[in-house]
Write a structure and sequence with these properties.
15 helices; globular; alpha/beta; 397 residues; three-stranded antiparallel sheet; single chain; Aspartate Aminotransferase, domain 1; seven-stranded mixed sheet; Aspartate Aminotransferase, domain 2
Length: 397
């Protein structure tokens, strides 16, 4: 095992959580989706400051379900152009492609690793967009408030992939609350872990209802009584027996289990303290990065809370990247590329998308960046190891 692994533990407050989980599973009468999932949805919506939260079996499923629900409701259609941040994870553009829409990669600034309002305007000078599915990468964002204003002005549907930025805030507003809806991931390496799991948050009642249909094969079994009555009336379903196997729109089986709900409820408690530790760790490493002329600092002071998912390292030149990656590896620090880099370079994207855009900033991030972990439970020794790795190199002439 690495001295500084990306994932130090599966859960926040791991020992107590594992003990409670064992007791829960041994005493449960039902483990398929039920009351713990619904309670977690309500509690998470309250934490995020949204009216509705719909739980899924993964963050990837949340992304897929959100776009499917918007297509079902007529907000999106086949061949619509959907913008997305070029520096992202595969499951952000993949459902755009899978659901028959055209993905438009938008460049990202090296200063924030994220798409800015300037990047968006440059894209809009070349093409129109129906929607923007922006990624708030690694706990950061650019001028998301200005992006939201542009989208409102241009009638562009703004969606946020917030899977890596739970707890970060811009101007006192949580990331994930700037658009119509946002997605979250509770995978084992993320801010909170339900082992696998994801969520969609929104204030739109009709979208929330459709998300529940999409999650469960297109049937109404998990809707409220009022929602069931409305949809059965709309489709003239008068038999309770027939309603059990009536499928109203396109959907999947993306349901979580009661284990997901139970764990989510337990993880929300220690989340605020862990966000502050992530922020403290990042600021400490940001100071070391700022002292090394080989690196470009990542701007974060515009964030009122920086729930950094990881410690990003962006070298000034491509040649330096391998030297520092080697140093981190020798020190036992687990590292990764800066997400998937410029997603246009990925094999799946080049296979299915024939028109690629010039994205110089995303290319630079792709060639010159990597990250190590930022676990809230890293020891002082582990933090010191990372800090030492950020010291200037002593290269032989």
């Amino acid at each position: 095992m690495k001295k500084v692994p990306l994932v130090l533990s599966t859960f926040l407050e791991e020992k107590d959580t594992l003990h409670a989980l064992a007791q829960f599973v041994s005493g449960a009468t039902m483990l398929s989706m039920g009351e713990h999932c619904f309670h977690f949805e309500e509690t998470f919506a309250s934490f995020q400051g949204r009216r509705y939260a719909v739980l899924f079996n993964s963050g990837a499923s949340a992304n897929l379900a959100l776009l499917q629900a918007l297509k079902n409701n007529g907000n999106l259609q086949n061949n619509d152009k959907v913008g997305f941040s070029a520096v992202t994870w595969s499951t952000n553009p993949m459902p755009i492609i899978q659901l028959g829409m055209e993905p438009i990669a938008i460049d990202c600034d090296r200063s924030t690793l994220n798409t800015s309002s300037n990047n968006l305007r440059k894209c809009l000078d070349e093409t129109s967009l129906t929607a923007l599915f922006i990624t708030n990468a690694l706990g950061f964002c650019s001028d998301l408030d200005r992006i939201a204003s542009i989208c409102k002005e241009m009638n562009i549907l703004l969606l946020e992939d917030n899977c890596e930025s739970l707890g970060s805030e811009l101007g006192g507003m949580k990331l994930g609350n700037f658009g119509l809806a946002s997605t979250f991931s509770f995978y084992v390496s993320h801010h909170i872990s339900t082992i696998e799991g994801g969520m969609v948050c929104t204030d739109d009642e009709g979208l929330a209802m459709m998300l529940k249909l999409v999650r469960a094969n297109g049937w109404d079994r998990n809707l409220s009584e009022r929602e069931r009555w409305n949809i059965r009336t709309q489709f003239a379903i008068n038999s309770e027996l027939d309603a059990k196997y009536t499928f109203y729109d396109l959907g999947y089986n993306l349901r979580p289990t009661e284990i997901t709900g139970f764990l989510g409820l337990r993880q929300l408690g220690p989340l605020p303290a862990s966000v502050l530790r992530r922020q403290s760790n990042f600021y400490r490493m940001a100071s070391a990065i700022a002292s090394n002329k080989d690196f470009l600092p990542i701007q974060s002071r515009h964030l009122s809370t920086c729930s950094a998912f990881a410690i990003p390292v962006l070298c000034r030149e491509k040649a330096l990247r391998q030297h520092y990656c080697d140093r981190f590896e020798r020190a036992g620090v687990e590292i990764r590329p800066l997400i998937a880099g410029n997603i246009q370079k990925q094999p799946f994207f080049k296979k299915y998308v024939k028109s690629l855009r010039q994205l110089p900033e995303a290319d630079f991030i792709h060639d010159c960046g990597f990250y190590c972990g930022n676990h809230p439970d890293y020891s002082e020794e582990q933090l010191s190891i990372i800090e030492n790795c950020l010291n200037p190199l002593e290269l032989k002439p």
